[in-house]
Specification:
The protein has 104 residues and is mainly α. Helices cover 67% and strands 0% of the residues. The protein has one domain (3-15, 23-103): Acyl-CoA Binding Protein (Up-down Bundle). The longest helix is centred in the C-terminal third of the chain and has 19 residues, at 71-89.
Length: 104
């Protein structure tokens, strides 16, 4: 999987409107988060957030769970998950995004 496809997928995920027709679930958002961090930072390099930071802990735990994943594999998993969500949405906008990713 190329970095260009990954970069295009990241741009699409970040541009999705909160109330739009294509809405990743919270679980899917965590999936994107953990593979984005693994692809861009590598293995977890911070300590686990405190007891009352529930969102921070969930994100940290998700990222920690993919420790050891290569940058290239993280790119691939991120892009494949987005393509899966876009195909499931089956809207004109989703088809446009799929074409953009495939052309990258």
């Amino acid at each position: 999987m190329s970095k260009a496809k990954f970069d295009k997928a990241v741009a699409i995920v970040q541009s999705l409107p909160k109330e739009g027709p294509i809405q990743p679930t919270q679980e899917e958002q965590l999936y994107f988060y953990k593979y984005y961090k693994q692809a861009t930072v590598g293995d977890v390099n911070t300590s686990r957030p405190g007891m009352l930071d529930f969102v921070g802990k969930a994100k940290w735990d998700a990222w920690k769970g993919v420790e050891g994943t290569s940058k290239e594999e993280a790119y691939e998993k991120y892009v494949e998950k987005l393509l899966e969500i876009l195909k499931r949405a089956d809207t004109e906008e989703a088809k446009k995004y799929i074409a953009e990713i495939e052309a990258a």
